[in-house]
Design goal:
The complex is a heterodimer of chains A (about 110) and B (about 110).
Chain A: E1 4-5, E2 10-14, E3 19-25, E4 32-38, E5 45-51, E6 56-59, E7 62-67, E8 72-77, E9 86-93, E10 97-99, E11 103-108
Parallel strand pairs in A: 2-11
Antiparallel strand pairs in A: 1-3, 3-8, 4-5, 4-9, 6-7, 7-8, 9-10, 9-11
Chain B: E1 4-7, E2 10-13, E3 19-25, E4 31-38, E5 42-51, E6 54-57, E7 64-66, E8 76-78, E9 87-94, E10 102-104, E11 108-112
Parallel strand pairs in B: 2-11
Antiparallel strand pairs in B: 1-3, 3-8, 4-5, 4-9, 5-6, 7-8, 9-10, 9-11
Classes of the chains: A mainly beta (about 110), B mainly beta (about 110).
Chain lengths: ~110, ~110
């Protein structure tokens, strides 16, 4: 049973527009939610996180929203840039983290 | 600025061989873990550790062993390699607290033939 789901395997967005990546989870006991970006042949790199006691966290162009009642989080990237093209993973947990299957974002110039 | 260091980066094994993927972190993190990444499957947790001497299974532990004798090191052992273990392996470390973050190594590409 997949505890963390990213239902969109891919997403294409025009440069300058907003990218919205979604993630759903099943375990209400998760304390932290993280977003990672991954380029081919590299390790995942941390983007932004949110704790379960908050509903929004912002860092530059990246904002994460957490809806605990819906067990849903989303990552907003505004404005999107071609360099944002990568695979994005959401993860949930405390020290033991479960990852989603990833969404491949392509930002079109 | 080492962070999380994994070795080797690439390895080819024959079915039935054993090997150890090494992982070391220099951030004094309590928590360490191993993930594998396969196409369409995302990152799946193999084993994790909450401190020296303490390990536990993740989502896909079969065929792998781990130990944590020091805070810094968390090796992953493949006992008898199988083609299904062909994958990219990532070691990670983290600490609890506000702004919790997992730091990943650069990955180890393993092919079992």
């Amino acid at each position: 049973d997949q505890q963390v789901k990213q239902n969109s395997p891919s997403l294409s967005v025009q440069e300058g527009r907003i990218s919205i990546l979604n993630c759903d989870y099943t375990n209400s006991m998760f304390d932290y939610f993280l977003w990672y970006k991954k380029y081919p042949a590299e390790g995942p790199t941390f983007l932004i996180s949110i704790s379960s006691i908050k509903d929004k966290n912002e860092d530059g162009r990246f904002t994460v929203f957490l809806n605990k009642s819906a067990k849903h989080l989303s990552l907003h990237i505004v404005p999107s840039q071609p360099g944002d093209s990568a695979v994005y993973f959401c993860a949930a947990g405390t020290y033991k983290y479960i990852f989603g299957t990833g969404t491949r974002l392509k930002v079109l110039a | 600025n080492a962070g999380v260091t994994q070795t080797p980066k690439f390895q080819v094994l024959k079915t039935g061989q054993s090997m150890t993927l090494q992982c070391a972190q220099d951030m004094n993190h309590e928590y360490m873990s191993w993930y594998r990444q396969d196409p369409g499957m995302g990152l799946r947790l193999i084993h994790y550790s909450v401190g020296a001497g303490i390990t536990d299974q993740g989502e896909v532990p079969n065929g792998y062993n781990v130990s944590r004798s020091t805070t810094e090191d968390f090796p992953l052992r493949l006992l008898s390699a199988a083609p299904s273990q062909t994958s990219v392996y990532f070691c990670a470390s983290s600490r609890t607290g506000e702004g919790n973050t997992i730091y990943f190594g650069e990955g180890s590409w393993l092919t079992v033939v």
